[in-house]
Amino acid sequence: MNIFELRAQPIGSLLRPAYLTQARKQARNGRLSAPQFKRVEDRAVDEALALQQAAGLDVVNDGEQRRASFLGSLSETVDGLSRSRGLTKPWHDDREAVELSLGLVVTGRLRRRRSLVGEEFAYARAKARRPLKVTLPSPLMLFMFWSPDESRAVYRDPFELFADGAAVIGEEIAELARLGCEYIQIDAPELAMMVDDSARRQVFEAAGISPARILDEGVDMLNGLADAAGIVFGLHMCRGNNDGRWLSRGGYEGIARQVFARLPRYRVLLLEYDDERSGSFEPLAAVPRDKLVVLGLVSTKRNVLESEQEIAGRIEAAGRYFPREQLGLSPQCGFASGIRGNPIDASMQEKKLRLVAEVARRVWG
Question: What is the Cα–Cα distance from 30 to 175, expressed in whole angstroms?
Fold first, then answer.
């Protein structure tokens, strides 16, 4: 796979159609059988692939339609998590910060029950007419479910939890390799959260998780995951994405040298850059010159379409710090990383995907 032919990319999730959300509720309540529900999921995946292909993207995925959230391939496939609304994090929008819970907490040892991505990839592989990407969450994202009060009974050190999470994700990668997958993206919002002193204190240090260890042991853990022959690995960094809200703000300057050069197994870096929260392009100068850097310049948080001229101009600006011919374009994050999805309607989602493809053709041919 030639990574420099993958200029126009999606990140991960697409908005889940109302019929899928309703079917998931019915299946959970026992009012829809497993075969019936799988046919509904199949329809949603078919539509997600068709949307991306019609938009003209160079690589596609299944829109994460089989997951309740982007963390689903980890949180929905393991034992060790319990329902709880008591564990919250401060999520921000342009007006306020609100404490929100993802509804789970670690109360037992993590054990893999089943694979989700095997089903995702095998079905989408048969349907896709473009190169296919599979997304997996960083095991460090288990920090969202780590409670100093409830989790220490089974994990004295949160990095023991992360190691078990890495083992689960490693098994998923091995499964994808056996199935012939060629492109895996690891989503690692926790790394970009390290740019924000407030997030480091309120989200990590308050829970007894060392930011310094995230940037040291954590980065090494992520690099160690990207170990399967014949697979291109990409790493996506954003600052949180939950119904249009975010967890942190700040440029990559504070982590560029600690992170970018210490991920030699990742050939693609997909970086959030949609607004002023992401800072300048200067940190791109620290990226090794053997990578494709995909700029997340198109917002999935705002129901407003960016202009082609604006996006093309920002690509040119980024090209002053990293070779323009080794850049690509994407949305800044998924459209529905959480259960409900971002405040964007389906028609705007389609326009934004088309914008990514059209600007990529205009800039790189």
Answer: 30
DSSP H or E stretch at residue 55: helix 34-55
DSSP string, 334-358: -S-SSSS--S--HHHHHHHHHHHHH
Q: List the domains of the chain with CATH numbers.
A: 3-364 (3.20.20.210)
Q: What is the pTM (predicted TM-score) of this model? A: 0.95
Token pair listed for 172: 């998923």
Judge contact between 298 and 311, C-beta under 8 A. yes
What is the C-alpha separation between 348 and 356, in angstroms, rounded?
Answer: 12
What's the rounded Cα separation, in Å, for the pair 339 and 253? 32
- b/e for 147-173, b at 16 or more Cβ within 10 A? beebbeeebeebbebbebbbebbbebb
Our CA dihedral for 315, 319, 322, 326, rounded to 10 degrees, sits at 60
Which tokens sit at 308?
């082609």
Residue 76 CA from chain centroid, whole number: 16
Model confidence over 191-227: pLDDT tens digits? 999 999 988 898 899 999 999 999 999 999 999 999 9
Give me the torsion for CA of 43, 177, 293, 239, rounded to 10°. 60
Pair 73, 137: CB distance under 8 Å: yes
Query: Which tens digit of pLDDT belongs to each residue from 5-23?
Result: 999 999 999 999 999 999 9
DSSP classification of residue 12:
S
Could you tell me which of 52, 32, 39, 150 has the C-alpha nearest to residue 101?
150
